[in-house]
Amino acid sequence: MTSQKIDFNYLSDSLKKHWKQDLSSGFIISLIALPLCLGIAMASGVPPMAGLIAGIVGGLFLSFTGGSYLTINGPAAGLAVIVLSSMEGFKQMAPAGLTPEQIEMFAYQNTLAVGLACGALQILFGLVKAGVLSNFFPSSVVHGMLAAIGIMIFSKQIHTAVGVKPEGKEMLEIIAAIPHSIMNMNPDIAIISGISLAILIGLPLIKNNFIRKLPAPLIVILIAIPLGHYFDLEHEHKYLFLDEHVYTLGPKFLVTLPNNILDGIVMPRFDYLFTGFGIQMIITYALVASLESLLTAAAIDKLDPLKRTSNFNRELYSKGGGNMLSSLLGGLPIIAEVVRSSANLNNGAKSPWANFFHGLFLLIFVLFLGGIIHQIPLAALASMLMVTGYKLAAPREFFKTYKAGKEQLAIFVSTIIFTLATDLLIGILAGIIIKLIIHIYNGIPLKSLFKPFLTIDIIDEENYHVDVEHSAVFSNYIGFKKQLMKLPNGKNIVVDFENTVLVDHTVMENLHDIQHNYERNGGTFKIIGLHDHKPLSAHPHASRKNKSKK
Hints:
Layout: H1 8-44, H2 48-60, E1 72-74, H3 77-92, H4 100-127, H5 139-161, H6 171-176, H7 178-183, H8 187-202, H9 209-213, H10 216-230, E2 237-241, E3 245-249, H11 276-303, H12 312-329, E4 335-337, H13 338-346, H14 353-368, H15 370-374, H16 378-392, H17 395-404, H18 406-421, H19 424-441, E5 453-458, E6 463-472, H20 477-485, E7 492-503, H21 505-520, E8 524-528, E9 533-535, E10 544-546
């Protein structure tokens, strides 16, 4: 039950065998990534160049150090809200007497220092083999965190999409200001975002195979740029709408890039890094960035036609090194991004070279197409982020969680509410605490809350029986999985839950993955002893409570 490692011999062989597929996929992904890198930077409150730097570093450098095979590395919407929180927090800490531009730079440089420290912490995570910690977080909490991020992204970007800047800074204030922004929208900007949304939503619905393969973000850009020229966004001017209202248009509604790529490189500053706020941001950065990368790698592993398995610890210190380099150059944090990674797999990529080529093409775009990038309307990028945010928090996510169990929905919704009202770290912590309270209410012994109790009996050379006692829940799953991973490959394994009070949703979900992987390697893996356990919903991975035990 071990993970393979990527080495330079593998990379060399892959380049010889699959360079055509990887080059093709890398180019297509770069077309998708370009507007998303710009949009994520915009959503993060940092210069557009920061998103491009992260995409370039994530492609060119992390391809050779990562522990996964088909993931695409770069900035992601999931971290945009954290970076924005960092920016807003450091602005409040700026010394008196600075100009607005100097305050922005002050916050930006301190935020880069947070990214650098986050990278160092991720390297430490990898060295101490903390990749297994991704198993600790309940899936309902993780999905609640992602849904909250989706709501934040959508709520922030709808204001940009209609050309209005909300007055409030807190997330609940920004959400409450949405009706006001819609009522006071800038019509020309709203037209650009409306057409962009129509393309992003409508293109995937077209049944023609050729059209469905076209990257929707690229089509949006190709249409939005001419619209920007039609509305003359390049020049500051006013216009009258319906002979009643006067609106302003100008370059502030377009992407801004430095004339020289080297001018986009900004160095971090460390004087406020180890304040209480700085430490909070470091922990939040590292936690969310690591968790998202590991979850993406695991999700792509399940789809990989070659059935390869990522090395999660290597993923952590690879992402850590990438985040340190990106932050030193003025870039955003880097993670393995799930949408681009899925598109990479669907486009026929075979190896990490696809990620490398995606970064190489991004660099070429920045070096030679800066003038075209500057012509992209921000409203088009906001529309892309709104679609991303909606997908993370779509009604189907609530329904899917409800199907897993009412208690899972309660944890999911609680995580969202606490995150929106406070911040991501508190939201995640609240979700975990609520799940622990539910487990205690369901009767699991306190002694097994964090410690698994299982006995492994070797029946003979080929047969192993694992007897699990008390509980198998998310909070003791790390130790539980560690024991199972010690079992040799190719044997007959029986895991017996007859003596447990509760087996929760997270364990049921992960256990079926373990079963699948073990049997793929030539062994058998049977799960028994759940006949007296009542599922808490009709979901196949629902939590199961033993009816015969109190």
